[in-house]
Design goal:
The protein is α+β, with helices and mostly antiparallel strands. The protein is built from 1 helix and 5 strands.
């Protein structure tokens, strides 16, 4: 599970086994036992969430939008091997 970013108490990461066939590019976000899955899009959008409130989800979408290019590069670097 490579971590691609830690910020504001969030850990953004990929699961190494993302299914076969592999799902479109996305990132998982975890904080204090809650987890969400965000599609990188475009547009960046919520796939699923457990334990986050609506405000936290809005913040996470903005965070992913701000770092989308670097997250996508990390996705392709990790899964192209």
């Amino acid at each position: 599970m490579p971590t691609v970013l830690r910020t504001q108490g969030y850990r953004l990461f990929f699961y190494s086994n993302e299914g076969d066939p592999r799902e479109p590019s996305h990132v998982h976000i975890m904080r204090a036992g809650a987890e969400a899955k965000i599609w990188l899009g475009p547009p960046v959008s919520l796939a699923e969430s457990q334990g986050f409130n609506a405000g936290e989800l809005r913040d996470m979408i903005q965070l992913v939008e701000q770092h989308r290019d670097s997250i996508e590069r990390a996705w392709h670097d990790h899964f192209s091997n």
